[in-house]
Task: structure prediction
Amino acid sequence: MSLSINNNTAAMAALQSLNQTTADLTKTENTVSTGKSVNTASDNPAMYSIAQNMTAQISTLSGVSTGLAFSAQVLNTATTGLSSISTALQSLATTIGTNTTGVDNSTLNEAITKTLASIDSAASGAKFQGVNLLSGQTGNGTTYTSLSTAMDAQGSTFTQNGFNVTSAGLGLTNLSMEMSGSSLALGSSTTSNTFATNNVIKMQNTAAAGTGGTVSAANPSITYNFIANTTGNDSQTSALGQVATAIGTTTGDLTVGADGLLKSSSNSILSHTTASDGSVTYALGNGDSIVQSKDGNGNAVYTANTAFDSNGNVTTKSVITDVKMASTASLSTQGGSTSAQSVQQVALMTQAMEYQGFGVSRDSSNNLTIAGNSISATSTQMGTVSAQGATISLGNSSATAFATNNVIQIGNGVSTGTADAPKITSDFIANTTGSTDTTAVDTIGKTAGLSNLSLNSTTGALTTTDTTYTLSAGTTQADGSTLYSLTTTSGGTASGTISQSTDTLGNAVYTFTSADSTAKTVVTNIDMSDTTSLSAVGGTSSAQSTAQVKSMENTLNANGYGVALDSKNNLTISGSAVDYSSTSIGKITSGAYNSGTPSSNDTTISMFAQGVASKANGFTGAATAVTGASVVSAVVQAAISSVTRTASSIGYSSTTISNLQTTTSSLSDALTTGVGALTDADLAAESAKLTSLQTKQQLAVQALSIANSQSSTLLSLFRG
Result:
């Protein structure tokens, strides 16, 4: 072995070995102490990057799991509240069932009041950390009425909309043994079904009708429209027209896209959110909102929220249901309103109303009894939705809107009528003087071809001195009208009939029908004499003029037309029998109509008009009030059904949250296992390695010590 005074090669080699062993030992000790083989990016860049991403996902899932646990508690709280409310309603149903002879209604009413208080208490108390899914409004410790939470690490959201199962939300406000429901006579016919497309049943709660106290979040104004869609029109044109009218936009603005979402041609929709139950809430530019959903039969339901309080709670809304009836097309129509098709149509309409919380029953005479949701019993109507109408300008001047014998003439647009589709002209004559029906009678007489026609001052019967025609004595009809036959004097040939009747407002109505039933003229004498005592100062804006226009509006409404007056004194008239090109305002002179201002076409409206085109026997279009224990029971049963559906929805959401919790936990466990597989150390192997490296370190230290002793050996060569 050579010795050098410049280099200690052995010591250098020993030191290098010691350094490497020490580094390996440090790394192994770190691995053993942390239990991980990959602690930093320098250990294994690829594995470290993958593990970090997986660890971040685990952290996100931890947050998701916390949110789901919170949501589960909110839903559990709501479920507990619903259970209490359901029990209270079942008890209430039993209480009402004891309404037998000898049981005082005041006793039952006291029990009802206490039960409603317990329902409100359960609903308002069902909150968890400021979230209440049952109260229907914020305030009193409730900050949120809906629930949203992340479902996964990607940020997908679970949303549960809230409900209103307070006594007001369940339509139990002012519930008593004396409360009223609506009795709507659908009528009977041997030739036509009960419903045609665009027929609609319209209802208002007492707040909307102006008889239910101050409108508020606790007492909202609600209008319901159930539109018969007998053609299977998936575009839901009429329903969306009603929605557009509710939010103040034009018919045709809202459409359903290929994706099933609402589209707005005027860009009135700012954004939308989809809840986990499939309902979609649209935020509008004017601050309103629309909720799009489906009922249990798959009918499209649109709720237009158009007024809110300072807390953002809804105070006014319209609920429009597009009732699908296309499935009845294959059923028999034999028997008209008693046919299989008609009966099924009524059943579908009834079910749609029940899904909105109404109690509905149908008797053998085709009468519907409707109760619930605090409806105004006499505000229920059946009519037609019209997507266009005629707009007449009443002008702005120093004169009042109507002078005597002014008339609004409405045509149905038929030029050559048939017996099934006659040409119809309706004249609504303003009688501002309160005189007899001279003008109306003269007009109907001239229309029938008579040189004169008048009223007998004693009997009130129609009479004529015309020698060309013979007018028969009047015969009283089942509906209370008087019918006269008109024949030629020479040959006795039938020329037509004249009907004398009154409308629901007491106005005299005269109708001439041609012998072949292809043409009909209806003349209504509107008594406006009660407006003459009002001030005429201001012309068309005066109290007198306003009252005259209101009288005209009421009469048009009573005769089945939809009417709206704008701020510029333009009167819009809609209905299935309105044609703008044959509608105008003018004056009757000597029994002849002299056209004044013609109307303009208005396709920007979607208006309800009471009544339907072909009225069945007994059909009036307006409901009457009915009372009795059966009505009260129907209201309670409807509330029970609403609570049951709410409980079903909450239960479904609870199951969904539970499944998501399980999935999240499983995924988190899988990711944790994956991270361990990528980064965890084999401690048995690392322990053996640690022992080996410790031994090697000791040997390296000893070798370095020996190598360092070479200097002493070199010096010994030079000693004497």
